[in-house]
Amino acid sequence: MLAVKNSTDNVIVYGELGRKPLSLNVRSRVLNYWFHIASSSGKKLSSILYRLMYNMYINNSIECKWIKFVEESPNLLGPGNVWQAQVGNINFNWFEACVKQRL
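and the corresponding structure tokens:
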């Protein structure tokens, strides 16, 4: 269909087509979801469960692949202080733009 050799890397094809690999979209969506539950008021079940899992993760009581993925992502993308502050008073629009720019 695109008339490229089978040995051509997918990343090159994505670049030529102006697309991104699906894994980058997944990472962006996970980080945006994390931002919302970490910054919510704490009355939602998802926020309560997140805080419980986060505290257990920090105390090495559990190993959670999702939290580990979220912890490593901002450090790779640049705004690592977001994880340490657990969002704090950071603007969601800034965070979303930062993630999109670095992906």
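(Above: one complete record from the training split.) The first helix runs from residue 10 to 17.
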